[in-house]
Automatic annotation (TrEMBL):
Name of the protein described by the UniProt record: Calcineurin-like phosphoesterase domain-containing protein
Keywords: Signal
The organism's taxonomic lineage, starting at the top: Eukaryota, Viridiplantae, Chlorophyta, core chlorophytes, Chlorophyceae
Signal peptide: 1-21
Source organism (scientific name): Tetradesmus obliquus (Green alga)
Keyword Signal: yes
């Protein structure tokens, strides 16, 4: 055990080393605390598009965020023919979202949701080809190896051609991204609702199979990268609520929490994915936050169990609030996370009720 004096001397030595470091990476590797913003499932109405989301962006911009992440669903599930803002999957919808992201001062991350691709084949969304809309998203949002937003952050991109495009040809799942800030690893995966593209209008098993395998590979690569870098924690960001247990049939697929088998009647787009995730989380032995949207209900809990039913104590699910019509049409809020890489839990969460939106 270090005495007070040796600790002081050690601290002095560290300060001297830092002060003299020619290598800037030593400074950026310092594990100082910072804050980030999370949001998703917005806007779902004209009022949210023209008032709620602009208020939210203004609120986020008033904080010194290192970055923000939007976890998908830029519109309601089905288009509204009386809407004056884009509510179908037309190019104007994507232009509107890009405008939101690029009006954020801090680097802005994004992972796609079912409402802007898998469900674009619904008649009320304009009968689009879901694969074509995903190709368009890749072209429009994910052409560069950096974030969106006014300031940009470099990202590692899943660049192997493991997904498939509109014509069934191999293409990169370029929306899958990874980045690191002060000793914490973040990554996104394209995991949408509608059973991960296995249910709802025109399910697409071929597309699912390619992307699911790619996601699992990206997950394993990213855990390995985090372990190699000695990261203090991982945060994963995607859209779907895959269902972790059998407790909440109004919001997610029901699943046996021990063997992970889905126990309701929908096709299961998440079994293999969750099985792989569980192995990675157990082996990592440090905090893992899993951020998703989908069911529009803010919560932070620990729903993931091992095969014997013991809680994975280092795993936290964070569900962003999203549009909640039951609480007024302009209920547009976000989650601020204080990230302290040297604290035991690393992530601390606060629901930010946006001024003017309630
Ligand atoms: C459709 O949009 C109009 C105009 O914004 C709105 O008044 C109406 O409530 C919306 N309908 C639904 C079902 O959300
Ligand atoms: C969408 O497809 C359906 C079924 O094929 C068809 O009946 C409908 O007219 C189409 N709607 C539009 C807007 O193209
Ligand atoms: C998983 O658990 C459920 C009970 O919740 C059971 O019905 C099912 O047979 C189990 N599946 C496997 C593969 O063990
Ligand atoms: C949970 O994470 C902490 C580090 O924050 C580690 O010391 C502990 O061993 C982990 N627990 C498990 C069960 O992996």
């Amino acid at each position: 055990m270090a005495t007070g004096i040796t600790r002081l001397l050690l601290l002095a030595a560290v300060c001297v080393t830092v002060a003299h470091a020619a290598d800037r990476s030593l400074l950026t590797n310092l594990r100082t605390p910072y804050q980030i913003g999370l949001w998703g499932d917005l806007p779902y109405s004209d009022l949210q598009a023209t008032v709620g989301v602009p208020n939210l962006i203004k609120d986020m911009n008033s904080y010194a965020l290192r970055f923000s992440a939007f976890n998908g669903d830029w519109k309601a599930g089905s288009g509204n023919s009386s809407s004056t803002t884009p509510s179908k999957c037309s190019n104007e919808l994507y232009a509107q979202c890009l405008g939101y992201l690029n009006s954020l001062k801090a680097p802005a991350m994004y992972t796609p949701g079912d409402n802007e691709w898998t469900d674009c084949d619904r008649e009320k969304n304009g009968n689009y080809s879901s694969r074509e809309r995903l190709d368009y998203i890749r072209k429009t949002f994910f052409g560069a190896d950096k974030s969106l937003g006014q300031r940009k952050l470099s990202q590692v991109v899943q660049s192997e051609a493991l997904c498939i495009d509109e014509n069934g040809a191999p293409t990169a799942c370029s929306e899958n991204r990874r980045w690191e800030v002060n000793g914490v690893t973040y990554f996104t995966m394209n995991v949408p609702g509608s059973c991960n593209n296995l249910c709802d209008t025109s399910p697409d098993e071929l597309e699912f199979k390619a992307r699911n395998a790619a996601n699992i590979k990206w997950m394993k690569d990213s855990f390995a990268a985090a372990a190699k870098a000695g990261s203090a924690a991982i945060m994963i960001i995607s859209q779907a609520d895959p269902g972790w247990d059998d407790s909440d049939k109004t919001r997610a697929p029901l699943r046996d929490a021990k063997n992970l088998t889905q126990i309701d009647s929908d096709p299961d787009g998440f079994f293999e994915y969750l099985t792989a995730l569980r192995e990675q989380v157990i082996a990592f032995k440090k905090p893992v936050a899993y951020v998703h949207g989908d069911s529009h209900y803010f919560r932070v809990d620990k729903p993931f169990l091992d095969s014997k039913g013991a809680r994975l104590v280092n795993f936290t699910r964070v569900q962003t609030p999203g549009s909640n019509a039951n609480n007024g049409n302009n209920d547009v809020n976000w989650v601020k996370v204080i990230v302290n890489p040297t604290s035991r839990e690393v992530f601390n969460y606060a629901l930010m009720i946006v001024p003017g939106n309630n």
